[in-house]
Amino acid sequence: MKRVSPLFLVLLVLGFFFATYNLLTMIIHYKTSSEEWEDPFLLPGNLNEFGGSKAKYHVALTATDAPYSQWQCRIMYYWYKKVKDMPRSEMGEFTRILHSGKSDSLMEEIPTFVVDPLPEGLDRGYVVLNRPWAFVQWLEKATIGEEYILMAEPDHIFVNPLPNLARGQYPAGFPFFYIKPSEHETVIRKYYPEEKGPLVNIDPIGNSPVIIRKSELEKISPTWMNISLMMKDDPATDQAFGWVLEMYAYAVASALHDVRHILREDFMLQPPWDEEVGKKFIIHYTYGCDYNLKGELTYGKIGEWRFDKRSHLSGPPPRNLSLPPPGAPESVVRLVQMVNEATANIPNWDTL
Hints:
The relative contact order is 0.13. The chain is built from eight helices and twelve strands. The protein has a seven-stranded mixed β-sheet, sandwiched between helices. It has a three-stranded mixed β-sheet with strand order 5-10-9. A two-stranded antiparallel sheet has the order 11-12. By secondary structure, it is of the alpha/beta class. Mean pLDDT is 88; it is low at 6-51. 33% of the residues lie in helices and 13% in strands. It starts with 5 loop residues before the first helix and ends in a 7-residue tail after the last helix. It has helices at residues 6-32, 67-83, 130-141, 185-188, 214-233, 235-241, 245-256, 330-345, and strands at residues 57-63, 91-98, 112-114, 148-152, 156-158, 172-173, 210-213, 262-263, 268-269, 282-284, 289-291, 305-307.
């Protein structure tokens, strides 16, 4: 074998040095430039390993004084208190924004800020339309100590401690598979004109769950409210979006203010479709869970075993619900276990 030239060895060593230096520089930059991301969609799924915004966020949810809303809020607040001070949690204070216009029986149990509902008839029976108006009032009138806000809902349960998933100016949101702006271009362009940019600028999200800077939400909320009302007032838009109209309104309002969200699939799971809990943070129990006694899903048909929040419109579910049959997924089992733990420990569960 020929002897290797000393010059070649020197160049090889220098090459390795510069390659290693560049790699380390990229890693350091990746970890520290929390405010400098040019495209939030390129952020990794395991963002927590690199650190989020490292600031407390205020947990806020909108609610009514109906029993159906109240029992969900009580369970949600129980689990907030349970995980608030756990390691990796960056939760701050909690507010139930009550848009019934008057106090209710939970004022002493749950920190609550009362706001006005929309004028009678304006929501056209779509009660969720009160949500953006509630946030507008709360942001204007309340004293909020945290820099960030988590917009949550009564049917959310914190299954793992939730850090601040936002990244500086970029809020974090959950991508919903049914929010598809590109499939409704004719409708969307009524509110997001072509000169604002392509439809891909509209994130496939709703307002919840979202962790966002308070200053950004203060800009978005009035637009979100106005677009929600405009969409509901337009028959074609109302027909196209149905019960998710207010979610589209938030997505469009955010895009109009040039706010893009980091899409975090680990933000939330939705039984029975998401079967494993893993490292996800919130259980959203919006769907009914129906199973036969073999543990097989019978969605669309009432099961021999079922848990559906809509079975309890007029009052809370009883304590100690039966667990799903063997074979049902972990997510459904965990959901019922967490509901049972909350109801067992919340005073006056059956009587309030």
